Amino acid sequence: SLRSPSLQVPDGATVGLIPQLHNGRAVSQSLAQSCPLGENVPMLEDGEEGGVRLWHLVKAAEEPEGAKARRGSLRERDRERARAKAIPEIYLTRLLSMKGTLQKFVDDTFQAILSVNRPVPIAVKYLFDLLDELAGKHGIEDPETLHIWKTNSLLLRFWVNALKKPQLIFDVRVSDNVDAVLAVIAQTFIDSCTVSEHKVGRDSPVNKLLYAREIPRYKQMVERYYSDIRQSSAASYQEMNSALAELSGNYASATHCLEALQELYKHIHRYYDQIISALEEDPVAQKMQLACRLQQVAALVENKVTDL
Fold this sequence. Notes:
This protein is an all-alpha fold. The protein folds into 3 domains: 1-59, no CATH class; 89-118 and 126-229, no CATH class; 254-308, no CATH class. 62% of the residues lie in helices and 0% in strands. The chain contains 13 helices and no strands. The chain has helices spanning 24-34, 65-70, 74-113, 122-137, 143-164, 176-193, 206-210, 215-231, 237-250, 257-270, 272-281, 283-288, 290-302. The relative contact order is 0.05.
C-alpha cells in the first residue's frame, strides 16, 4: 500500500504512470485517447500546459523564474523558502548522527595506522632514518620540515589513498554515498597530519566542522607515531637489502612484473641525471657499480646513449 499523510495520499491509493513525450500537448493528447476520465483515474491539478503538470517522484530542484512566479501565491513561495532554509539544518543533524555511528571505527582505523605496538615495518624505519640523516647532513633543524617530509612520503602518499579509495587494495565496489563518507574521513586524516593550526569558523565547510574537536587529538597521535619510530631500533642497510630481496622473491613469478618495472622506470627517467650523479658519488653505490647498471637498463629500455 502507498500512504503519505503529508501528500494526502490515502491508503490503497492508485498511482497513475504517465508517459512523457516531447511536449505537454503530446502528453495531453495521449491522456485523452488512452485514459478516459473516471473515479478510478487519478486527477491532476491544473498546470500551465494543457491542464497537465509533469512531476517526477521528487520535485524538481529548480524551475524557471517565470513559471515559479505564475505558480502559487506569495505565501506558498515563503513556505518553500522556509523549507529550503531548514534543509541544511536537517542535513547537519543527520551528519552528526552518522558521525557518532562511525566514530569508533574512525578512531580504531587511525589508531591502527598510527600505532607502533607491532614491529615497525623495516622499510618505514629505514626511510624515516634516511630522512633524519639527510636533515642533519644539510643542516635542517626545523622539526616542521622533517614532519612534512615524513608526512608526504608515507601518510599522504599511501594511507590517504587507502582511506579514500579502498578499491585500490580490496576487491570491493564503493557506492557514491560511501565514497562521500570516505572523502570526509580522508580529509580529516590530511588535516591531522598538517603542522599548521586547524582553524574553523562559521563559514567553514561542514566536513571541516564535523571533526574539529577530534583533530587536535589526531595530531598528537601523528607526533607520537613519528617519535616512537625515531626511538625504535635502527634498520641497517644490510637488513633493508635482505628484506627487499625476500620481497622480490615472493613476487618473482608475478605476471605483471614487467609492467611494474616499466612504471618504476618512468620515475627514474624523470630524474635520470640526478640519480646517476648521486650513484656515482655514493661509496656503497660505487662498490656495487649501480650507476653503470642503471645506464645499462636505460640502454635496454630506450636505446639511450651511454658511456659504456
